[in-house]
Amino acid sequence: MKKFISTINILIICFCAQGQNQTALPQIVNYHSYDYKAGVQNWAIEQDANGLLYFGNSEGLLSFDGKFWRRYQLPNQTIVRSVKIAADGKIYVGGQDEIGYFFPDNQGRLEYHSLKKLLPSAEGHFSDIWNIAIYKEQVFFRSRNQIFHLKDGVISVYKPETRWDFLGEANNQLFAQEYNKGLVVYDNGVWKPYCNNPILDETPVTAILEYGKDTLMVSTLKKGVYFLHNNILTPKTTSIDNIFTNDRLYCTVKVNEEWFAFGTNSSGIFIVDRKGKLIQTYSYTEGLQKNNIRSLLLDRNKNLWIGLDDGIDQVAINSAIKYIYPDKKKQVTGYATRVFRDRLYIGTSNGLYSSPLDLSQQDLSLSESNFAEVNNSTGQVWSLDEINDHLLVGHEDGGFTVNGSNAIKLYAAAGSWLFKPSSQVFPASHIIVGTYTGLRVIKFDQQTFKDLGRLDGIHESLRFLSFDSNTSTVWASHPNRGIFRIELSPDLSRIVRTKLYDSKSGLPGNNGNYIYRIKNRIVVTALSGVYEFNSSANRFELSSTLHPIFKDLDLQYLHEDKDGNIWFITHKKAGVVDFHKPANGKNYSVVYFPELNGIVLGGYESIYSWNDENIFIAANKGIIHVNYKKYSAQISRPDVFLGQVRLSEKDSLLYGGYTKQQATVHLGSKLNSLHFEYSSTMFEQLRNIEFSYQLAGFDEAWSAWSTKSEKDYTNLPPGKYTFYVKARNNLGNESAPVTWTFEVHRAWYNSFWIYGLYVCLLAGIIYLVFRWQQKKHQAEQQHLNYLHQLVLDRNEKEIIKLKNEKLETDINFKNRELLTMTINLVQRGEVLTKIKEIISSLMKKDTSDDSSPAFRNLLKLIREVEKSNEDWDQFAIHFNNVNIDFFNTLKQAYPDLTANDLKLCAYLRMNLSSKEIAQLLNITLKAVEIARYRLRKKLLLLPDTNLVDFLTQLPKSPVSA
Asked: pLDDT tens-digit profile of 748-758?
């Protein structure tokens, strides 16, 4: 029975949740646990001054910067159930048996600082911290059995008589709920009673929010929502009170001045206005991962963040782009849209759907919706055209007109693509239909349509067609054939002439050609560029109006809105040429919608512009709604966040991103490869954000814009660098750049002082080389001098040798002369002796007186000649020439020698015989022997010394030596 009642309650909740919703849903982004790589449950959400989000997760604290998720665990690896960020940037967290805060160090890395050491010893163990509140720069932590109060570095403990069920700050007051005692308010260290309504004994409070100047809104876990005014609690009636009765209300946030978001245990989220009216439901059906909501946060850009029992979701609740799903169960493809008679019609792959509209809402996406399938419309709906105040439906089964909630078939034939009136002045009398098999004509008369049948002459499938200025000429296109010019009869009853224009007629190819009427001109979008027909040349040429805008872009669809802007689609990418916003020196700007990339319907593109706040685009699932007025007004500059800087090779964190850089980071020479991570916290525009970077000191210019959010630099040379990064959105709004400065030092072998040492060493080496070269040169010079001296010595010796040889020759010559002279002297002596003997014998024989004087005179003359020293003097001169200093040496050594002794020595040196010496000295032989004896005594010779050898051994002249 209980199971049955629970099932009924769930069905009631689902019916109420789905019965009243807005026409369009904003984008919902799902982050699964494998995306952020942490636990499934997310109990609290906060956002800091830089825009970073923090989640209390079952495995620690998560941070998200738009691109990168990071997890920080508590010391005891416990769950983080509560998070609160103070004005000084401290991120206070509470878990199981743990309280503390995270705060960045000097390198921007989050570090955990436990506060348990400040607790009294008796309070060292406690259960989960469910709430954290910051009140007048004081921090309060709530567990069921304690409230810890941190003030000026001291923690006080407040214990309840029963248990603490709630803690929160609102309207500059700090409230707590004690079971069975109601709400109490903190007042200078004392918890004073505030409201003790009996309903508070039945349910815990989950949130207290400001509602008016003196009124608070209180949401409870089991009893719904109340007003708190003048300490009195009164119920707030809403259209979903039955949901609050049957479900649990875990969390509540204020979305704007009119709306509040309520997160439930099993029904998802409900957006309710001040009047209590349900505005929108967000649940699993709308795209949430779970219906079990644990926490809610409205970020600074009005995105709703949802902490789920399994995952994290983001709802871009303030986005200008939303999505319409006429059949949420089937998620059908949307082909066409029209606002007609206060209803929104959507043609899909499964039929035509309609919903009434509240036209008081300028943005129709905010209107309540209650889509229902139009009767008799099942099948593919290709187009919706309002002609002559009727809604015509191009359907795979033919043509239909719509009357309220019913579709009425105009004809039963092959599928119809679209309807074109023959005149721009309504009511048009004829309507041309492009069908699977050519053209068809419908006549309009007296508020009724009459099918005139198919026109013979062309059997192609014509999905694109338009009338020329001449209403009897129709331009049509077949994407795989070319462009057809079809001339009709004046009454449009038959085809007069058909001509096909293809690649031979100026088009770039036969495929990919689409015909449209833009700026009152017939234009063709082709594979490269936009073309117009030149009637004088009878061929297509590049459009002078549109080609300069689109260049060679391959367009599949063009649409001109009421304001003259041109919407286009190229390969599932949508954009608009806005002629009301000049840019870059042109009278228009081109705006792309990156959010729609890949989800725009391809092959059957369609754009319907009701006004600038309601643009409807065919999508793979449902219809895309664009509030272009709101979208183009998003002029806020995107922000950029430098997340982490790491060493590429060692993966060592240099900068954590959670605080501004304090000083230049100094890196060693080998730490010159860095990895930068950056992102933007414009979470609703993440697909629109592009980044550009520059490393001052290395890059000469900023990089090209790219969605890439990481950059690596490797092998940077020594120097000081500053990394700059900035972001921009698709509207061209740029952020201010953020910077990070670092310096790569030179290696010790590459530093300036080592360069100085290198210079000194080089100078020393040069000096040593110079000295070595000089010494080598000197040695070589000495060697050369030595060789030269050897040559000189050799030459000199040669010269001396030659001189000696010459001297020897001269000496020999002189010796020969001396010998000759000596021989002559001896011979003369002998001759004179013989003459004297002959004269003596003659004198003995001749006794006459006449001859005696003559003989005596002759003898006297001979004796005078013998006594004459002239011969000796002449001999001495020759002897001295041969034996230099011989006589001087003897005189110096033996001063007692007489002249005769010297003569004897000279004759002995010449090795003359005693007889020859006697003849020269004119003495007898005996006298010669006596003289020799006396000479030996004067020379002090020993008996065994040969006199001649002695005299021969006397020092000779250098020449003779």
From this structure: 777 777 778 88
Question: Nearest CA to 510 among 487, 475, 473, 484?
Answer: 484
Q: Both tokens of residue 263?
A: 């997160």
Q: Are 76 and 95 in contact (CB under 8 A)?
A: yes
The residue type of 113 is: H
Residue 617 to residue 631: CA distance in whole angstroms: 15
The confidence score (pLDDT) of residue 801 equals 77
pLDDT recorded at residue 16: 45
Q: Cα Rg for the chain, rounded, in angstroms?
A: 64
Q: Are 335 and 324 in contact (CB under 8 A)?
A: no
* 275 pLDDT higher than 50: yes
**C-alpha span between 666 and 669 (Å, rounded):** 10
State what percent of residues in the chain have pLDDT above 90.
Answer: 60
Q: Which of 265, 259, 231, 260 is nearest to 245 (CA)?
A: 265
Q: Are strands 607-611 and 614-618 parallel, antiparallel or unpaired?
A: antiparallel
Q: Tell me which range, 399-413, 623-637, 884-898, is most confidently predicted by mean pLDDT.
A: 399-413
Q: Within its chain, how far is the Cα of 722 from the centroid?
A: 12
* DSSP code at position 878: H
Helix (H, G, I), strand (E, B) or coil at 760: helix
Q: Which amino acid is at 496?
A: V
CA–CA distance, 380 with 854 (Å, rounded to integer): 190
Strand partners, 393: 384, 400
C-alpha dist (Å) from residue 449 to 237, 452, 751: 51, 9, 92
Residue 825's pLDDT band, with cuts at 50, 70 and 90, is low
754 CA to centre of own chain = 31
pLDDT digits (tens, 9 = 90+) for 23-53: 999 999 999 999 999 999 999 999 999 999 9
Dmax over CA atoms of the chain, in Å, equals 219
How buried is residue 228: exposed, middle or buried, by Cβ count under 10 Å (0-12/13-18/19+)? buried
Rounded to a whole number of angstroms, the distance between the first and last alpha carbons of the chain is 155
| Chain position carrying tokens 């923690």 | 155
CA 864 to chain centre: 134
